[in-house]
Amino acid sequence: MSTSPSSSAQEARKALARRLRDMREEAELTAIGLAAAAGWERTKVSKIEHAARAPSVADIRTWCRVCGAEDQTEDLLATLRAVAGMYMEWKRFNRSGLRNLQEQRTRLFEQTRHFRLYTSQVVPGLLQTPDYARAVMGAVVRQNEIPDDLDVAVAARMRRARLLREGDHRFAFVLEESVLRYRMGGPAVLAGQLEHLLSAMRLPSVSLAVIPFTASREAYTLGDFSIYDDTEVRVELLTAAVTVTVPAEIAQYRREFEMLASMAVRGDAARRVISAALAAL
Hints:
The protein is an alpha/beta fold.
């Protein structure tokens, strides 16, 4: 089973907090002494060192200056930016609509040569039809109460699908059979989506596997996840996305993906599962 998807972000915050505490101790300052020198409230240093409060850019600069370690400022700021990027709240990121997220994801996909994705909820964005994408993203707009820019967001997602046919990319998708059965957008929309999956399976860059309801379970996961080469894993939660960059954890997600893929069917067997879901409509 995979680790908790928020564990990497939390551990990164704790690691940054430990570095700041070690710096203070090396400067032979107490927490109260550092707070006084920085002009902060008495409890601020303790909260930062216990990862109960995230430091700001200004906090890092002040911390390094007071501790006489200004040569470490840029390194710590780079760490702070990395930590901040590991946990991305949907509502904050999508405050102006969904287009921004679609375009940011496109840049990430363009840089990725080997993409792997496991999902138990919805068809992956790269394989979605316009109608299905509109249904999925419409639900996101309603659930998160964000601006409705569905027309441009759907168009951006459709443009990204060109990567299935362009460049040196490989895409491996593992879908639970439930993905084929959830009537996102209604029966007609799902029917069009399933027909599109049957067509997309023929693309040389695409490997699509389905875990049937009848498969013997050897593994389960806490949520959908995608692996970008061997450098990054993204786990999607209800309210946020967590980015995993720790090599040991990426390796664990890779093993999880391989185990899930081992339970799936491919080729004609996968087409039969998809066709059965289509016939059921």
